[in-house]
Design brief:
Elements: H1 8-14, E1 15-16, H2 18-25, H3 29-38, E2 46-48, E3 51-55, H4 56-65
Antiparallel strand pairs: 1-3, 2-3
Length: 75
């Protein structure tokens, strides 16, 4: 059985810096920093030393969790 290796180019493209992640979400990078520190929004992130990265799939999953169903309009 062969082990599947992910190419570094694919991995790097799935990994976003805080400014890239903020642009993707439509928020300010300072908002992401505040959310990381206060845990107000628990968006998964990767920390390598002092570097912070977000995975696009984690951002998409978090966005999906933020969907609010509309209430029916009484008529």
């Amino acid at each position: 059985m062969q082990e599947q290796v992910t190419s570094p180019a694919r991995t790097a493209s799935d990994r976003l810096t805080p400014p890239e992640a903020a642009a993707y979400l439509g928020v300010k990078p300072s908002s992401l920093a505040t959310w990381r520190c206060t845990r107000v929004h628990r968006i998964p992130f990767i920390k390598i030393g002092r570097l912070i990265y977000y995975r696009r799939r984690d951002l998409d999953r978090w966005l999906d969790q933020q969907v609010v169903d509309a209430l029916p309009v009484e008529g």
